[in-house]
Amino acid sequence: MKKEKECRRVKSISxxxxxxxxxxxxxxxxxxxxxxSVDIExxxxxxxxxxxGGMTNISMMHIMIAAYIRxxxxxxxxxxxxxxxxxxxxxxxxxxLTIKKEMSLESPxxxxxxxxxxxxxxxxxxxxxxxxxxxxxxxxxxxxxNTARFFTKFPGLLFKFTVxxxxxxxxxxxxxxxxxxxxxxxxxxxxxxxxxxGIPPIYHHLYDFGxxxxxxxxxxKRRAYELDSQGIVKKKSYMDFxxxxxxxxxxxxxxxxxxxxxxxxxxxxxxxxxxxxTVVEDIE
Length: 284
Hints:
alpha+beta, globular, 6-stranded mixed β-sheet
């Protein structure tokens, strides 16, 4: 049985979408920035229900990853990337994030990556992410750290040449699979939580190495007092978040639609308990 490819070229794009990657050749030079906030009253209730239902370690990170994967299932162009000045799309959603062994200044950190299908539920995300976190904290190191440690043994000039050679291979889709598998820079998106640090979300740059087209950051919960329709003051809970986006993978209208859809998912998180009714495929 022929194995389905993990990614494929998107060929039926518009002439403009074809030309842009040749004009805007770097990911950091193609960044767009957006900030927004969302009411998380229902999200907090949902998370409390999950904690009481047995997901004792659930956090906002689990839910935000699940929400973004659900978004990709309906807006598949978000799972595209630019390689070799061509537009590609992924079969699965690959999520990179930085974790620490413990919350202290001296504690080392590393990057882990989980891969899930667009049909994944919150339970799937919870299991996959917890497995990676527990594995790292019980046995610090992991594939990324071990690979990075290997490269630290190279003289600086040789390491610089090695990275340039890997870029060359990546451009022509010849990157060794074991490198792409452990590389956090080869992913659907990077996510970071500033909430655990008690600060607002940052605008984190993209990387020219690798394929990551989206960086998603969310901050600490904040309170606001607002007047309702009857003029009564109500206390509201909001979460601020930012996106840094590679504008070459889809247009602004598509991004705007995706942002609205993400906010709708967050406002109705119970849908994450079940797979989506349909998974929308990207164009050919």
